[in-house]
């Protein structure tokens, strides 16, 4: 969008082009995400830049990390992000969802994102020593964090992914994420 480049475009009604960062605020105030007035937000350079910045931070942070099956950890993060398309805020948070927990040295990079992204990333980040009840309450209190955590839990408990693990590790992971789904209200006990 031209707005991101420091220009304001005049529109037919005499107002200015809608800046994409207002999309989340508009949706929170009852505007449907599919409302035509938000079309520039869905297709803007801003959304692409947000996601690309988040992806770059995640790729740097997780560069040498592997998952329990020995695969590059960034593939997990990418699958979580893919589950949340086309929402750029959710995709950005998905890319960042494990950065602070696994690589706190990248905190400044995460804190440079818009406040709604930072708030969701902080909500989805379990602090050292934090009990699970407190953590799940923290995640549930932020709707964006909850959406991303739901996608994270879905990927972590995917039977195809679990099949790559030793049986005892797969059973442990299945139990862990089954409890998480219930605690987050994603399924009933």
Q: What keywords describe this structure?
A:
58% helix; 2 domains; globular; disordered N terminus; 189 residues; 12 helices; mainly alpha; Hypothetical protein af1432
Short overview:
With 189 residues, the protein is mostly helical. The chain has helices at 23-28, 39-42, 45-61, 74-83, 88-96, 99-102, 107-111, 115-124, 132-140, 143-156, 159-162, 167-183.
Describe the structure.
With 189 residues, the protein is mostly helical. The protein folds into 2 domains: 1-41, no CATH class; 44-183, Orthogonal Bundle (Hypothetical protein af1432), CATH 1.10.3210.10. The chain has 12 helices and no strands. The protein has helices at 23-28, 39-42, 45-61, 74-83, 88-96, 99-102, 107-111, 115-124, 132-140, 143-156, 159-162, 167-183. Helix 5 (88-96) packs across helix 8. The model is unreliable at 1-21 (pLDDT under 50).
Question: Can you lay out the helices and strands and say which pair or pack?
Answer:
Blueprint (H helix, E strand, L loop, with lengths): L22 H6 L10 H4 L2 H17 L12 H10 L4 H9 L2 H4 L4 H5 L3 H10 L7 H9 L2 H14 L2 H4 L4 H17 L6
Helix pairs in contact: 3-5, 4-5, 4-10, 5-8, 5-10, 8-10, 10-12
Could you name the ranges where pLDDT drops below 50 across 5 or more consecutive residues? 1-21
Oligomerization state of this entry? single chain
Name the CATH superfamily assignment of the largest domain.
Hypothetical protein af1432
Order of helices and strands: HHHHHHHHHHHH
The CATH architecture of the largest domain? Orthogonal Bundle
Number of helices: 12
Mean pLDDT: 85
Radius of gyration: 18 Å
Strand content: under 5%
Question: The CATH topology of the largest domain, please?
Answer: Hypothetical protein af1432
State the shape: globular
């Amino acid at each position: 969008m031209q707005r991101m480049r420091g220009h304001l475009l005049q529109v037919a009604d005499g107002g200015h082009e809608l800046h994409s960062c207002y999309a989340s605020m508009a949706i929170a105030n009852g505007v449907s995400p599919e409302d035509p007035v938000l079309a520039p937000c869905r297709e803007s350079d801003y959304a692409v830049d947000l996601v690309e910045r988040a992806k770059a931070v995640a790729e740097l942070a997780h560069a040498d990390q592997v998952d329990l099956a020995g695969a590059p950890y960034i593939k997990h993060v990418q699958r979580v992000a893919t589950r949340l398309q086309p929402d750029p805020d959710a995709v950005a948070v998905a890319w960042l969802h494990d950065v602070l927990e696994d690589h706190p040295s990248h905190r400044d990079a995460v804190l440079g994102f818009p406040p709604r992204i930072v708030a969701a990333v902080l909500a989805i980040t379990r602090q050292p020593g934090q009990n699970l009840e407190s953590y799940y309450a923290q995640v549930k209190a932020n709707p964006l964090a909850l959406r991303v955590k739901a996608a994270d839990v879905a990927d972590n408990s995917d039977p195809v992914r679990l099949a790559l693990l030793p049986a005892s590790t797969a059973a442990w992971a299945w139990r862990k994420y089954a409890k998480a789904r219930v605690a987050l209200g994603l399924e009933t006990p």
